[in-house]
UniProtKB/TrEMBL annotation:
GO terms for biological process: glutathione catabolic process. The keyword Lyase applies. The keyword Lyase applies. Belongs to the gamma-glutamylcyclotransferase family. ChaC subfamily. It holds the Pfam family ChaC. Gene3D superfamilies: Gamma-glutamyl cyclotransferase-like (3.10.490.10). One of its GO terms (cellular component) is cytoplasm. This is glutathione-specific gamma-glutamylcyclotransferase.
C-alpha cells in the first residue's frame, strides 16, 4: 500500500488543526472535484447518540475544489489510528484523489476519507440555519461542536486565506452571531486550549506569506476573524493523541 516515500493523507476537517498521529511532512493545498459540507453526523467526538453533532465530509462536484492539509506518513501506526478514528468510529470510507500544492509546483496521489449517504451517521443536507443551530447545541467527548466549526474556519482564514468556502464561512458567521446574541462565553465552547500546528519549512511560501501580512498595514483583515482563538507556533512533540482528548 505504501511505497518508500510513504503515504499521503488529505485532511479537510479536524485533521487540519488536530491530526493526532505521527507524520513526516505537512503542507496546505487542495483536491479537485469535491466540495466540503457539514452533512455527516458524529456521536463519538462532537455529539452523542441522543444529539449527534455535525462534521464535514466531501461531496463530489466536478466544478469545485476543497482546501485542506496533507500529511506524509510512514508505517502502519498512523494508518491504523486513522482507520479507527475515521472509518470505525466516524463512518467514513477511503478513496484516492490528487492533491495540488498551493504554489502549483507539485501534485501527487493522496488518500481521502469520505462519508457517504448510506452510513448510519449520515445527517445530510439541511438549511444552513438548521445546521448552525445543531452545531451550537451539540458537544461530545472531544469537545463542543462549535469548537470543531470555528477551528476549521480559523485554519482556513489563517493558513489558506485565498480559499473560497461559502458553506463553511456562512455557517461560521451564523454561529458567531448566535454566540454573541446569546452572550455565550466563546472560550468555554473552545475548550480553553490551544493546538500547535507543524507546517515548518515544508510550506515555506505559506509561512513567508503570513509573516509578510503581519508586517503589512494593507494586509487582508479577514485573516484573523473577530473573537478568534490563538494557535501557538512552536513545534510540538509528535505523539499519538487519544481518541477522546
Amino acid at each position: 500500500m505504501m511505497d518508500e516515500e510513504g503515504l499521503w493523507i488529505f485532511g479537510y476537517g479536524s485533521l487540519c488543526w488536530n491530526p493526532g498521529f505521527e507524520y513526516k511532512k505537512s503542507m496546505t493545498g487542495y483536491v479537485k472535484g469535491f466540495c466540503r459540507r457539514f452533512w455527516q453526523g458524529n456521536t463519538t467526538h462532537r455529539g452523542t447518540e441522543d444529539k449527534p453533532g455535525r462534521v464535514v465530509t466531501l461531496i463530489e462536484d466536478k466544478d469545485e475544489i476543497t482546501y485542506g492539509r496533507v500529511f506524509q506518513i510512514k508505517g502502519e501506526t498512523a494508518l491504523s489510528y486513522l482507520k479507527m478514528r475515521e472509518c470505525t468510529l466516524g463512518g467514513y470510507l477511503t478513496k484516492f484523489s490528487t492533491f495540488y500544492s498551493r504554489d502549483g509546483k507539485s501534485s501527487f496521489p493522496v488518500l481521502i476519507y469520505i462519508a457517504t449517504n448510506n452510513n448510519k451517521h449520515w445527517m445530510g443536507e439541511a438549511p444552513l440555519q438548521t445546521i448552525a443551530m445543531q452545531i451550537l447545541e451539540c458537544e461530545g467527548p472531544s469537545g463542543h461542536n462549535v469548537e470543531y466549526l470555528l477551528r476549521l474556519a480559523d485554519f482556513m482564514h489563517r493558513y489558506v486565506p485565498e480559499a473560497t468556502d461559502e458553506h463553511l464561512f456562512i455557517l461560521e458567521k451564523i454561529v458567531r452571531a448566535h454566540i454573541k446574541e446569546l452572550n455565550i462565553c466563546i472560550n468555554k465552547l473552545m475548550g480553553n486550549r490551544v493546538f500547535a500546528l507543524e507546517l515548518l519549512e515544508i510550506d515555506e511560501e505559506l509561512v513567508t506569506g503570513q509573516n509578510d501580512e503581519e508586517n503589512n498595514d494593507n494586509a487582508p483583515v479577514n485573516v484573523r476573524p473577530e473573537n478568534s482563538f490563538e494557535y501557538i507556533s512552536r513545534v510540538p512533540t509528535k505523539l499519538l493523541r487519544c481518541l477522546k482528548p
